[in-house]
């Protein structure tokens, strides 16, 4: 009952935040130097043609009217046509968003689960050499510059020993072959995905591990841990049932926070691995002044981050019963 | 044979600057169904004794000397597996700050059930649920609240739930470490009565650890007063209260105000001005610097254990 109320409140909040983001984006695009028409103009166009183009795009209308059109278009699902591709923007987003979601959700979930698991174990060996070693290793991994380690991995695993493809998400031969079944296709994507996954895993797991470790150490000092021990539980039961659920809460929070950052880090990762995702598309759209595509990419990335945070909130409320009653 | 026998218990805490003796040469015994109160100021070692009974001393706590026997079993020689079976089933504990003794992310009922399930693996889920319902009834928590989380309980309810949990495996002995410190006086009184009532009904022995001699006075058969890791006075309640032998006990009793002011009558209870003392002198009476009766002898020689009666002993050379 209370969880429902919490959810409803969060969803309303998301709408409000999203509306604010939309408005800021609109203003930013209008404040930015240059305009869409100048990008399309070439020397063969007469000034009349240019004026016609401006009128076609509605750029001669007052700003408030443009804003209303913008809002209306969004809610009617009309995102315009990409200047570069000449296709509806929504189609391009539809193609680019799923690969990004696939790669980054998998990477985040894997890193968080591994970080929680290892952090939990390593907290048990506090002060021992293995604890010191893992802590230092995690710190080093966490500070690695992602494109650098990505290039290193590509050079070694894809180029030198050839275990993985150099770039991309799929092998064209498999995808045009009508005989290839779902499994073959899924396997192909997985094969392409392993290297970027590995990179993201190496860079992200360390942070989660360190948060979990220190959170565990704090939780282990709690009185209810003493109670659990006094009850005759094994150390393993104390760790898994009484310490870990409480200790993992800060990790969940940090997953929510890092999702927003994984989008810009994501653009880098996608570029290095030529992963056909929305981050790379966004960079492309911005550098080519493909206004409709850039705008829609921004909006959808924002939407994804908001929804992901909602999921984290639900998870949090599930893990900590105190949350939904506040 | 007494239920619990503790002999010459000596416990050190190892820190960066060396070892500190928290409990020194403590011996006592407890009969089945009786209650013992351990009183003393913070740091006198009373909680350490409680922890040692369950072998729950922190990593830097070392049991240097002594023995603990419960019903004839040597607690200190139990293997890890035997120890887990021993904890809660033979001795359970009501912890200091019970507010935090319940895990916030698990339902209260589940936490009680967990204890029963560990020690009675043969019990069916249905049987365990019935047990828990009966326990909650015993401590006056409505059955409907079993599946609540700790934060939905009031302070007094949490404390009662912790008591229910401590009794869940029908232990021989319950150690209650400051069971009511965080509660207001009215709730405190209810809780203490409840513990005593259940204890009598189930024939469970109890050790009540408190800094408040008033708390212990109302519910214990025997009283043990500690100062700086040592027992300085030991006896049954009436003896200790009516004819306290140690100056520290007298001073404790007089700080516990009663309406008729009965403990205010002692004239020699005021703390004297601090007398500089060479702390390193081994064996000398630790209370001597604060003691109104102390003379030069007290600062040099160890205090003697004087027996005022077969059940009443005092660690003070100046007591007659």
Give the SSE layout.
The complex is a heterodimer of chains A (326) and B (320).
Chain A: H1 2-31, H2 36-40, H3 47-57, H4 63-75, H5 89-123, H6 129-143, H7 146-160, H8 172-176, H9 182-219, H10 223-230, H11 235-247, H12 249-272, H13 278-287, H14 291-319
Helix pairs in contact in A: 1-14, 5-9, 5-12, 5-14, 6-9, 7-9, 7-12, 9-11, 9-12, 10-11, 12-13, 12-14, 13-14
Chain B: E1 4-15, E2 18-30, E3 35-39, H1 46-53, E4 61-70, E5 73-74, H2 80-86, E6 91-94, H3 108-119, H4 125-138, H5 155-167, E7 173-177, H6 185-202, E8 205-210, H7 213-219, E9 222-227, E10 230-236, H8 237-242, H9 247-255, E11 305-309, E12 312-315
Parallel strand pairs in B: 3-8, 3-9, 6-7, 7-8
Antiparallel strand pairs in B: 1-2, 1-4, 4-5, 9-10, 10-12, 11-12
Helix pairs in contact in B: 3-4, 3-5, 4-5, 5-6
Plain-language structure description:
The complex is a heterodimer of chains A (326) and B (320). Chain A has helices spanning 2-31, 36-40, 47-57, 63-75, 89-123, 129-143, 146-160, 172-176, 182-219, 223-230, 235-247, 249-272, 278-287, 291-319. With 326 residues, chain A is mostly helical. Chain A has 2 domains: 2-75, no CATH class; 90-325, Orthogonal Bundle (MetI-like fold), CATH 1.10.3720.10. In chain A, helix 1 (2-31) packs antiparallel against helix 14 and helix 12 (249-272) runs antiparallel to helix 14 (291-319). Chain A is globular, with a radius of gyration of 24 Å. Chain A starts with a helix and ends in a 7-residue tail after the last helix. The model of chain A has no long low-confidence stretch (mean pLDDT 86). In chain B, helix 6 (185-202) links the parallel strand 7 (173-177) and strand 8 (205-210). Classes of the chains: A mainly alpha (326), B alpha/beta (320).
């Amino acid at each position: 009952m209370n969880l429902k109320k919490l959810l409803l409140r969060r969803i309303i909040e998301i709408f409000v935040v999203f509306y604010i983001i939309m408005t800021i984006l609109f203003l930013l695009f209008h404040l930015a130097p240059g305009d869409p028409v100048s990008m399309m103009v070439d020397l063969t166009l007469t000034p009349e043609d240019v004026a016609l183009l401006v009128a076609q795009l509605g750029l001669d209308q007052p700003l408030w009217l443009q804003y209303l059109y913008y809002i209306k278009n969004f809610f009617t699902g009309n995102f315009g046509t990409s200047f570069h591709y000449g296709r509806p923007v929504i189609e391009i987003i539809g193609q680019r968003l799923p690969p990004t979601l696939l790669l980054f959700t998998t990477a985040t979930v894997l890193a968080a689960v591994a970080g929680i698991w290892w952090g939990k174990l390593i907290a048990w060996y506090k002060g021992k050499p293995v604890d010191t070693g893992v802590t230092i290793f995690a710190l080093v991994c966490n500070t690695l510059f992602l494109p650098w380690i990505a290039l290193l991995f590509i050079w070694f695993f894809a180029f030198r020993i050839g275990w993985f493809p150099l770039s991309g998400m799929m092998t064209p031969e498999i995808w045009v072959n009508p005989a290839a079944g779902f499994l073959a296709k899924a396997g192909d994507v997985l094969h392409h995905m392993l290297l970027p996954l590995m990179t993201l895993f190496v860079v992200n797991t360390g942070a989660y591990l360190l948060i979990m470790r220190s959170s565990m150490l704090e939780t282990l000092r709690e009185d209810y841990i003493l109670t659990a021990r006094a009850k005759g539980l094994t150390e393993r039961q104390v760790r898994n049932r009484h310490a870990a659920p409480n200790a993992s809460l800060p990790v969940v929070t940090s997953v929510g926070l890092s999702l927003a950052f994984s989008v810009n880090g994501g653009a880098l990762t996608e570029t290095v691995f030529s992963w056909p995702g929305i981050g790379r598309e966004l960079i492309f759209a911005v550098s080519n002044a493909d206004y409709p595509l850039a705008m829609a990419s921004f909006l959808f990335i924002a939407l994804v981050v908001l929804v992901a945070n909602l999921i984290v909130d639900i998870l949090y409320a599930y893990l900590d019963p105190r949350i939904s009653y506040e | 044979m007494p239920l619990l026998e503790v002999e010459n218990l000596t416990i050190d805490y190892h820190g960066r600057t060396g070892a500190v003796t928290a409990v020194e040469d403590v011996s006592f015994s407890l009969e089945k169904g009786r209650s013992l109160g351990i009183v003393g100021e913070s740091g006198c070692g009373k909680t350490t004794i409680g922890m040692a009974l369950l072998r729950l001393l922190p990593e830097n706590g070392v049991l240097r000397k002594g023995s603990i026997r419960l019903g004839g079993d040597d607690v200190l020689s139990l293997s890890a597996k035997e120890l887990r079976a021993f904890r809660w089933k033979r001795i359970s504990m009501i912890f200091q700050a019970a507010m935090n003794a319940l895990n916030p992310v698990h339902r209260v009922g589940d936490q009680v059930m967990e204890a029963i399930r560990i020690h009675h693996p043969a019990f069916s889920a249905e049987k365990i649920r019935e047990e828990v319902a009966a326990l909650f009834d015993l401590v006056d928590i409505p059955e409907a609240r079993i599946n609540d989380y700790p934060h939905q309980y009031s302070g007094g309810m949490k404390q009662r739930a912790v008591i229910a949990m401590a009794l869940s495996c029908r232990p021989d002995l319950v150690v209650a470490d400051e069971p009511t410190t965080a509660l207001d006086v009215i709730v405190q009184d209810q809780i203490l009565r409840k513990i005593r009532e259940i204890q009598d009904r189930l024939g469970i022995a109890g050790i009540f650890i408190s800094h408040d001699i008033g708390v212990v006075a109302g519910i214990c058969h025997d009283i043990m007063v500690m100062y700086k890791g040592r027992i300085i006075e030991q006896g049954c309640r009436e003896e200790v209260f009516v004819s306290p032998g140690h100056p520290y006990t007298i001073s404790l009793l007089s700080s516990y105000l009663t309406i008729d002011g009965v403990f205010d009558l002692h004239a020699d209870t005021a703390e004297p001005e601090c007398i500089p003392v060479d702390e390193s002198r081994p064996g000398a009476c630790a209370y001597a610097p604060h003691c109104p009766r102390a003379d030069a002898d007290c600062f040099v020689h160890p205090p003697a254990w004087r027996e005022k009666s077969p059940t009443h002993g005092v660690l003070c050379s100046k007591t007659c």
